[in-house]
Amino acid sequence: MISAALAVGLLGLMPGVAMASSCYDLWYARNAIYDEHGYCFSTELAQETFDNSDCYTKHPKFSKAEQRMIQAIKNEEEDRGCHVN
């Protein structure tokens, strides 16, 4: 599993979010940030993709930079009409 920082880096950071090659890449990068903060995933795909054994919250706390990145990714997912899960 790659870290959230690497996943975000692969997207090229905020302006480069649009450079993600697929909706799955966007979904993965967004959820990697959640995973780094102990989020307990409930969907089958997320549980298969991320290790839920160390999760501890449904309400993770993010830095302002992480919040901006998550929002940028969500905006791009919406613009593309992504529906990964």
**What's the oligomerization state?**
single chain
Q: What integer value in Å does the Rg equal?
A: 12 Å
The helical percent reads 40-55%
Cα(first) to Cα(last) distance is 19 Å
What is the mean predicted local confidence, pLDDT?
86
Structural commentary:
This protein has 85 residues and is an all-alpha fold. The chain is built from 4 helices and no strands. Helix 1 (4-10) packs antiparallel against helix 2 (23-36) and helix 2 runs antiparallel to helix 4 (64-80). It is globular. The mean pLDDT is 86.
Give me a quick take on this structure:
The protein is mainly α and 85 residues long. It is built from 4 helices and no strands.
Kindly list the characteristics that best describe this protein.
85 residues, 4 helices, globular
Present the secondary structure layout.
Layout: H1 4-10, H2 23-36, H3 44-49, H4 64-80
